Amino acid sequence: MEFRKNDILTLDIEDCGVDGEGIGKADGFTVFVKDAVIGDRIKAKIIKAKKNYGYGRLMEVITPSPYRVKPACSIARQCGGCQLQALSYEQQLKFKEKKVRGHLERIGGFQNLDMETIMGMEDPYHYRNKAQFPVGKNKDGKIITGFYAGRTHSIIDNRECILGVKQNKEVLDRVIGHMEKYHVQPYDEATGKGLVRHIMIRYGFHTDEMMVCLILNGDKIPAEKALVESLCEIPEMTSITINVNKKRNNVILGDQLRLLWGQSYITDSIGDISYQISPLSFFQVNPIQTEKLYGKALEYAGLTGNETVWDLYCGIGTISLFLAQKAKFVRGVEIVPQAIDNARENAKLNGIENVEFFVGKAEEVLPREYEKNGVYADVIVVDPPRKGCDEVLLNTILKMKPERVVYVSCDSATLARDLKVLCAEDYELVRVSTTDMFPQGVHVETVCLLSKKCPV
């Protein structure tokens, strides 16, 4: 039977796709349905049809799944941020474990994996230490802020995201109130006019320090002094900055920063290590789970105090400084110069001297240092972006032959691809652990331990 756009189908949702969408079949025709949950019986409207599969819109839940729950957020379905809120948290964790296992089996070719139980959260809400709120206008011309609807740049008005800290709302209320009082216009992507593009808020979970950074299509905001006075009434306020981004693109932050009040950074800690975090710094958004994740990476590294470690894609030195507590020496590599500046400052802040940081691409720095300067490593830790590791870097790791490789990944598909290369001859996958860094969303962090194969 041929199915076409706008057809209405009754589906039993039997599986879940990697992006959290429900999967059902009708006469062999597979349909992916956003917001459907495994175990649901639904009515779906076909919005896009291919030969053997299509995409549907959830029209009605005929019989709800036993795993279906009422989303804690009233606009969860419209907003693009939480793909799994209608799924019980227990099942969210199972979905993420299955996702990682599936990628490792199908892409990596690893079978009969003995994965450790996923590390979830006791309270899977209000865990984000950072939020970036776009600012715009609704159809009535009222200034709004919130989050983009899925796959769009239409703002869903929401100042009380249940994933963020509760203090976010007071910041947003004060900034929007200031804009209304002084007739400050939000940025309009269509015309390139208007001033306020985004409001970024960062919060230190262990220090209660708060940062507000206004991203502007200009150099200053009217009545800056009044805005600062208003924001400083919030007890946790520590840093107020302006970031200038006059480019017409989808990149949130520009390169130019100006301090309005307080420090140019906030401080927070992971375990015993303190970090200075600037508006441009990459810092894991879930500090509670980050400590578990990095603790697992440190455990897998198996450090005794005699090892030389390379930490690739090191950011502001978060993992590097964790490792330095147990290693003889750690060398970190990161492409972003400001991040390396932060890493060096963070090392000083913690009195850690057995570290060295390099600015550059990991796939350029490590081969250069290995081939020209003869550096070696007992352990190599990689924590790449979603695209995974460069082929040149993987080949260099294989040439250097460290005893152990610890791979921290935010994308299990590229993780599986890279592990297949590393484990083709010299290494074996020994341990796999997953951490739920993003409850209510589909992403999951994975840590893998590779050890050199024993000679036969």
Automatic annotation (TrEMBL):
Enzyme class (EC, first level): transferase
Tagged with keyword S-adenosyl-L-methionine: yes
Active-site annotation: 410
Binding site for S-adenosyl-L-methionine: 284, 313, 334, 383
InterPro entries per the UniProt record, alphabetical: MeTrfase_TrmA_AS, NA-bd_OB-fold, SAM-dependent_MTases_sf, TRAM_dom, U5_MeTrfase_fam
Chain ranges of the TRAM domain: 2-60
Documented EC number(s): 2.1.1.190
Membrane-spanning intervals of the chain: none
Pfam families for the chain: TRAM, tRNA_U5-meth_tr
This protein's record includes keyword S-adenosyl-L-methionine: yes
Keywords per UniProt: Methyltransferase, S-adenosyl-L-methionine, Transferase
Domain of life: Bacteria
Sequence similarity: Belongs to the class I-like SAM-binding methyltransferase superfamily. RNA M5U methyltransferase family.
Name the record gives this protein: 23S rRNA (Uracil(1939)-C(5))-methyltransferase RlmD
Organism this protein belongs to: Blautia massiliensis
Gene: rlmD
